[in-house]
Amino acid sequence: MNYKQLPKIDLHCHLDGSVRPETIIELAEQQNIDLPSKDVNVIRDMMIAPETCPNLIEYLKRFDLPLSVMQTKEALERIAFEVYEDAALENVTYMEVRFGPLLHREKGLNVEEIIGAVVAGMQRAEKVHGIKGNIILSLLRHMPTDEINDVIDVGSQYVGKGVAAFDLAGGEELGFCEKFIPFAQYAKEKGLNVTIHAGEQGEGQNVYDAITMLGAERVGHGIHIATHQAAFDLVHDKQVALETCPSSNVQTKAVDSMDVHPIEDFRQRGIPVTINTDNRTVSNTTMTKEVQKVMEQFNLSEEDYMHIYRNSVNAAFTDETTKSKLLASE
């Protein structure tokens, strides 16, 4: 089977985890930033997480290097363009890229400039490559909450023009949702969809809370509903799509190995699962690799895969016209 030719949708991809190593070297040179090496292979090794990390925290360390060069409008626009370009070249027809605007202010950029640059890069890729996209604004759970509404205010100006949703990301502690209720509510009032990272690190209760407290319409990862019946039933009854990221889940020890990943069990039991990259560089992956990995591991037919593709279309934070075109490309 030609996995590259299959139409693909990526709903869970982090901008700072998907930067080309070559681009890091070029931007560091332009910005007079010292790198440990100018050898692309060394930089690539520094950016790619081990096949199995001890934990999520170790995995997240791989973001320090790309963030160091992602502090100018030009760098953000270029990296956003390249992430969408790389996806388009492997027949990803629609993609939602998420990033944390508050992580890009070290050189004085404001949130308006940061979001505007990323949207501009995406829109340039749409024109050049025909891919469709949207941006998701990720707020990090460990950071102070006093600027969250400022990010939402700026992002809301781009609703329907490149920004689609509000997200919470970063290390996951049990019970994190309650603190963020007013912010998720404000995001919805401002026209943003809501997707929340939850149930990645063993806490199925967080998925239940994300849906009931924060109004999550999708859940990032969500795989630990497998051990939490109430969360599983809620996801099933409300048909909340799970943004599963198979390679990443193995790397961060969210699951022990690919053969015990719950994606196919969920699919067979009526949970709307989707396949995504999470971080193209940090996880050393592409949508083609992720689709092939899932199909071969669980012996899926092309028809089985198209069922997952349709889940992604239905769950996408985009307009009905775009969804119709995505379904037509099956």
TrEMBL record:
Site location (Important for catalytic activity): 221
Cofactor note: Binds 1 zinc ion per subunit.
Annotated keywords: Hydrolase, Metal-binding, Nucleotide metabolism, Zinc
Zinc is among the record's keywords: yes
SUPFAM superfamilies referenced in this protein's UniProt entry, alphabetically: Metallo-dependent hydrolases
Binding site for substrate: 14, 16, 170
InterPro entries, alphabetized: A_deaminase, A_deaminase_dom, Ado/ade_deaminase, Metal_Hydrolase
Family from the record: Belongs to the metallo-dependent hydrolases superfamily. Adenosine and AMP deaminases family. Adenosine deaminase subfamily.
Function recorded in the entry: Catalyzes the hydrolytic deamination of adenosine and 2-deoxyadenosine.
UniProt protein name: Adenosine deaminase
Source organism of the structure: Vibrio maritimus
Gene that encodes the chain: add
